[in-house]
């Protein structure tokens, strides 16, 4: 090799070596990555997301993707002249709306992500929570102002069967999961918030990390008046903060709490609008978003 080529290759070798302790520590670990519909802004970002996920897989981790699609569902409901309404942060899902949710999540968003991942090899396999009893739910009626409210076909998760996901992981695949559940009570399918589904899957799979990609930098301490991001907090600190949070952040942070309480080592909310945010989060010591850790590891609310 010429001296000039050695010179340009050396910084690249140093970058790879810097990642070695991290790669060694996380080898074989499951990482659940939730890609929010609001973070799927353009083709470039989606392609970079796919590259990051494939990179993790090729580096020896076992990524599982759970995707959202709220804005994409809104657009399709709009086209069909159906109303989009949210209560307690959840979509009021009539039987007609459920058909649209299922079509958009499983037939559109999931297919697109599977396609992007599979540009890198025969890796991704798409499924919904309906498949192989992966997610079972019962009808969810949230309490609003002290009253139980009927919001239609919205599911509350009652059981997770990780068998199909584990079989795919054992086969070296990347499962890409839509947040739709089957019901054990009736023959209907139910709409589950994708953050909630990702967190429940992370806990059930014994994942090392849950990463939630969204359209903000992380959890803001005093939203919307300030954009100061809380970089790290413990589950107890998060629990105290939960009642103050508003709509979009509620299922995300409840999910992070559930995941870490369920044994996941860290749950992170990161900015999916930043290209390669997954790799940035992993390869920078302090991370780029908000990290939720168990109480034993201590935190700081900034
Ligand atoms: N404390 C907070 N910190 C950050 N974002 C917040 C906070 N409270 C509410 N939000 C809102 O939550 C939104 C993210 O949730 P959501 O719209 O459901 O995204 P996604 O499609 O990624 O699930 C942000 O865009 C912001 O408007
Ligand atoms: C019950 C409920 O609200 N389900 C969500 C499922 C999709 C989702 O969660 O998408 P994001 O992650 O992009 O918000 C919905 O219908 O919008």
From TrEMBL:
Keywords: Amino-acid biosynthesis, Arginine biosynthesis, ATP-binding, Cytoplasm, Kinase, Nucleotide-binding, Transferase. Its main location: cytoplasm. Coiled coil: none annotated. It is found in: Cytoplasm. The record marks 34, 252 as: Transition state stabilizer. One of its GO terms (molecular function) is ATP binding. Belongs to the acetylglutamate kinase family. ArgB subfamily. One of its GO terms (biological process) is L-arginine biosynthetic process via ornithine. This is Acetylglutamate kinase. It comes from the Bacteria. Catalyzes the ATP-dependent phosphorylation of N-acetyl-L-glutamate. The keyword Cell membrane does not apply. Substrate binds at residues 69-70, 91, 191. Its EC number is 2.7.2.8. InterPro entries: AceGlu_kinase-like_sf, AcgluKinase_fam, ArgB, Asp/Glu/Uridylate_kinase, Glu/AcGlu_kinase, NAGK-C. Pathway: Amino-acid biosynthesis; L-arginine biosynthesis; N(2)-acetyl-L-ornithine from L-glutamate: step 2/4. Residues 29-271 form the Aspartate/glutamate/uridylate kinase domain. It catalyses: N-acetyl-L-glutamate + ATP = N-acetyl-L-glutamyl 5-phosphate + ADP. GO terms for cellular component: cytoplasm.
